[in-house]
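Data card: per-record layout.
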Amino acid sequence: MRRTYFLGGLLATVLTTALYPAALAAAPASSAAAERAIGESTSAVLQGDSARALAALRQVPAAQFKGRDADYRACMFGRFERAQPPWLVWDIEDPFVREVLNDYQRYWWHALAAPAHRESHAQQLLLKLRRLLGTAADDAHDFDAVEPLLKERFEQRGYHAILGRTPPLRELMLWRSQETRQYQVELPEGSHQVRVELLDDFVSRGWSSYARCQRGSAGGWATNEALYAVVPSYPDGLDSEAFRVVFLGHEAQHFADQNRFPDMPPWELEYRAKLVELAQAVEVSRKRLLGFMEAQSDDMDSPHTYANKRVVADLSKRLGKSPELASLPELQQAAREQLKADTARQVSQ
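The structure for this 349-residue chain is written out next.
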């Protein structure tokens, strides 16, 4: 059974320059306040709240945002500080695909603008999709029935799709290229042979990308059968540590946990995979930790930000200090020990 509620560690949940080509690291630097505002805005929008994301950015003068940070700020206000959603699907030739993606983007915009009404907006999306599908959807009264019909239509037009729900919103990712490879992945608690589907040529990288003006996106996801990598999320290539640890390590841990603990809640899957990242990363370790620390919440329906809070709290307790004050060896050891302790807890339940 495919479980589509956790798209990859939203691996790009908090994409920083560490996960971008090295040339970008030399770009003009934003102020520390601007960088904190971006972290706060990212945390807010990944919890499904665009108004709170804009409020975080508004606290810092625009002049303090430089380079791609300034572009991000401008795009966020341009996309969300308006009366109606923008039209962003002009480059899609197929009318059916164009209309479906526009409907999803309008749903995302309204749900992000009014989190308390996101379910009613989801129901409006469902009605629009049924109308687009015509008589084929006469007996399809919920998303579970409609989404297979959508996927079939996409495939007929040369697109692959992932649907379902990536909490807290309904999901749509669309791509045209897919390649299969086998990888042997070493995890802190064992080695796993996994099938990896490499996905490319995207026309939609999902709501987490839309909500952040394409600054980042889901980097991939896992089922109990395979891993799925969003290749554009790794501009430094498939030999980079970002791919080897942030994707392969993170998602292989999901793969292992889904097979060993099939009823594990989404936030716990993310919690354990984030510990694997910190146990194995070197080059991207500090950036990933900073991302976890900046994007925290108490909302279990936002599994990534909730898992971030639990990771930071548990590592702080184990280390006896904030994780950002630990050396890399200390942080890696603490993450391995915390993962081992959590596995013992899972087994004893």
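Known properties of this structure: The beta strands are 160-162, 165-166, 169-170, 173-187, 190-205, 220-222, 227-230. The radius of gyration is 20 Å.

See the next section for split statistics.
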